[in-house]
UniProtKB/TrEMBL annotation:
Pfam families: ABC_tran
Entry annotated with the keyword ATP-binding: yes
Superkingdom of the organism of origin: Bacteria
Identification of the protein by name: ABC-2 type transport system ATP-binding protein
Residue span(s) of domain ABC transporter: 5-234
CDD domains the record matches: ABC_DR_subfamily_A (cd03230)
Keyword terms, alphabetized: ATP-binding, Nucleotide-binding, Transport
SMART domains: AAA (SM00382)
């Protein structure tokens, strides 16, 4: 099956000479959740804006549902829902009218039952008669999502959807996103919250300096790049490592009170038993043992740091 979004050698150079995108290639499958991670200025918003037809590319091509986003703007835009970072709404309009109007603007027939479902899903039903100016920032963010969902898009872009939103509301939004995916909606989100990508994404893309550094299935990325750490709390502190441990990737920590062994992959993991045997032969005792695997945030920082 052809991908629902196909991005080929996409570039964008602004009038001041700034190269926001440098030959980005990406294919997104229908029904998946893709998290796009990157620091400020990495090119995330520019990429989304081009796919949504809000910014013209300098080079390359973007196909949405087989249609070119420049030549077939109407067809592609009708398929896409966008929740931008900026909170842009009529402050003197009610929540109900704001969301209903968005559906009409996109050429959809009136469907009060659908609007009701969307508002209830986003915990906005009790606020339906409130004017936008009466809502908190987090509530306004929900209304932005409701506006995008009002016209039932096949693809939903969420640009920093939980910025300024409390933890509980963030988790509610994750649940909404999962329900949308179950209904076949393709979701692309940019986020500064690494745990957001770790929680809900199928694949993770890392973009920096206008270049897509990688796109991987989340589990494969964690397995391929995630490092693990074995921590041994020593019974007696050590002033220095004995020569017998010189072949292991170990280091002393906590003023000699702990021994840290970093490993990656099955080969290095297989050396743990040998390491423990070497410690026993050296008379080095420990009273506690624990392991830790690097998080997606660790991987992200490492990748971006390599290209800084």
């Amino acid at each position: 099956m052809a991908p629902i979004i196909s991005i080929r050698n996409l570039t964008k150079t602004y009038g001041n000479g700034f190269k926001a995108l440098k030959g980005v290639n990406l294919e997104i499958e229908e029904g998946e959740i893709l998290a796009l991670l990157g620091p400020n200025g990495a090119g995330k918003t520019t990429l989304i804006s081009i796919v949504c037809g809000l910014v013209n590319p300098s080079g390359g091509q973007v196909l949405v549902g087989g249609h070119d986003v420049v030549k077939d703007f109407r067809q592609t835009r009708a398929m896409i829902g966008l929740v931008p970072q900026e909170l842009t709404t009529d402050q003197f309009e009610t929540v109900w009218n704001t969301v209903t109007f968005s559906r009409g603007v996109h050429g959809k027939k009136e469907d009060p039952a659908h609007i009701e479902r969307v508002l209830k899903d986003l915990s906005l039903w009790e606020k339906r008669d409130n004017m936008m100016r009466e809502l908190s920032g987090g509530m306004k963010r929900r209304v932005m999502i409701a506006k995008a969902l009002s016209y039932e898009p096949r693809i939903l872009f969420l640009d920093e959807p939980t910025a300024g939103v409390d933890v509980n509301l963030r988790r509610e939004m994750w649940q909404v996103v999962e329900r949308l995916r179950q209904n076949g909606v393709t979701i692309i989100l940019t986020t500064h919250y690494i745990e957001e990508a770790e929680e809900i994404a199928d694949r993770v893309g890392v973009i920096n300096g206008g270049e897509l550094l990688l796109v991987e299935a989340k589990t494969a990325l964690m397995k391929k790049l995630g490092r693990k750490e074995l921590r041994l709390e020593l019974t007696k502190p050590m002033a220095a490592l004995p020569d017998a441990l010189g072949t292991y990737n170990v280091a002393l920590a906590e003023n000699g009170g702990a021994l840290i062994y970093e490993y990656q992959g099955e080969a290095e993991q297989g050396r743990i038993a040998t390491l423990l045997g070497t410690l026993a032969a050296q008379g080095i005792e420990y009273r506690d043992l624990s392991t830790r695997q690097s998080s997606l945030e660790d991987i992200f920082v490492e990748l971006v740091g390599q290209r800084a």
